[in-house]
Amino acid sequence: MRYIMLIYMNEAEAASISQEEQQAVFAAYGAFTNEIREKGIMHAGDALQPSSTARTVKVRDGKLVSTDGPFAETKEQLGGYYILDCNDWDEAVAWAAKIPTAQSGRIEVRPIMEMG
Hints:
The chain has 116 residues and is of the alpha+beta class. The chain has helices at residues 11-15, 19-39, 89-98, and strands at 2-9, 42-47, 55-60, 63-68, 77-85, 106-111.
């Protein structure tokens, strides 16, 4: 079954770390990504631009409303995702725990609904 790992982090905190710390985080992500690719369970994964680049879209009474930024004001923002093919919840949670941001942010794990 495929699971999406939604990576939430505090963008302000991430922006305040030193260049050396940032390089260490990127290296940890590189190692994690290489590991799941080598295991053959990675379907997709990307980092996202900061939430300040987002637009939220909704339609109400037939009218499009588009606003700058994410829907909710929160301390953590969606920073990226992975889609992994795991045997079960236990395996999905174990992989989510290995994502570097699990140490400072949080990872939401959700099964992907298979259509058809």
